[in-house]
Design brief:
The complex is a heterodimer of chains A (112) and B (151). With 112 residues, chain A is an alpha/beta fold. Chain A contains 4 helices and 5 strands, in the order βαβαβαβαβ. In chain A, strands 4-3-2-1-5 form a 5-stranded parallel β-sheet. In chain A, α1 links the parallel β1 and β2. With 151 residues, chain B is of the alpha+beta class. Chain B has a single domain, classed as Sufe protein. Chain: A (Alpha-Beta Complex). In chain B, α2 packs across α3, α3 packs across α6 and α5 packs across α6. Classes of the chains: A alpha/beta (112), B alpha+beta (151).
Chain lengths: 112, 151
């Protein structure tokens, strides 16, 4: 099964759900589903800033597997990080996300 | 009473961020168009933009625009809408996409093509304004031939 994750809520989503659950499972190739994309809203975008330690690991997984990483453009502009993300990580809005996933369509989109 | 400082340290208008331009542009994008409407232009990824102008005595008085809901495109259009009032049409035509990219920092490279679309749409409105001015004040060519060319 192919899934895409949308990180919409803040709290400890990145430090806990992504960094301690999803990411280690992806690194160990035992997540149980093919993650074709991740989209980040609000402060969750800071994980995509070049140099972020969790982001470094995520970026490596994305490069190895072809997984899409994309930040919300308005959220990144608000935080003035749009031009500070890992190389090749795009920003965009829903049309960009759908277009980017159209070549590798997920069976499920999970909002976290 | 202390006078307002007019030195460069205090009088320079702070540069707006992309997010601030987008916030203002989002509202302007929903306003009614100005008197002179330019042709709509379409760019990559189906983004579209058109500008409208109020012009008096060859000077831009106010700028409006309608753009696709793309944060970068709206920010670029809003920057044009903020700086253009007061410009003559001839001066406004000199604004380029490269100027726009330089003036609105913080946009990642792969989104900067929106500046080209914004400038194309703005120039479309400038063209409409020039046509309208020309229609209102046609050049009287008879004065060009006041003397016979053979004389």
């Amino acid at each position: 099964m192919k899934v895409a994750y949308i990180f919409a809520t803040q709290r400890n989503n990145i430090s806990n759900v992504l960094a301690k659950m999803i990411l280690p499972q992806l690194e160990q190739k035992r997540h149980g589903a093919d993650v074709v994309g991740m989209f980040f809203f609000e402060d969750n975008n800071y994980v995509l800033v070049d140099g972020n330690p969790i982001g470094e690991r995520l970026h490596k997984v994305a490069k190895d597997t072809g997984m899409l990483l994309m930040g919300c453009d308005q959220c990144c502009y608000e935080r003035e990080i749009a031009d500070k993300l890992f190389p090749g990580v795009p920003i965009g809005c829903f049309p960009d996300l759908y277009k980017a996933l159209s070549g590798n369509v997920p069976d499920q989109v999970i909002t976290l | 009473m202390t006078a307002t400082c007019r030195e460069a340290c205090c009088s320079v208008t702070p540069r707006l961020t992309v997010a601030e331009l987008f916030e203002r542009g989002f509202r302007r994008n929903r306003e009614a168009p100005r008197a002179i409407a330019g042709a709509p232009f379409t760019g990559a990824e189906d983004n579209a933009a058109s500008f409208s102008l109020d012009v008096a005595e060859g000077q831009i008085i106010a700028v409006g625009f309608q753009a696709s809901c793309c944060a970068t495109l709206i920010a670029y259009c809003e920057y044009i809408a903020q700086i253009a009032p007061g410009f003559s049409l001839a001066i406004a035509r000199e604004l380029t996409a490269a100027n726009l990219v330089d003036s609105v920092p913080g946009v990642p490279p792969f989104k900067r093509d929106r500046a080209v679309l914004a400038i194309a749409a703005f120039r479309g409105a400038l063209l409409s304004a020039a046509d309208e001015i020309h229609a209102e004040n046609p050049i009287n060519e008879s004065r060009l031939h006041f003397r016979h060319p053979a004389q």
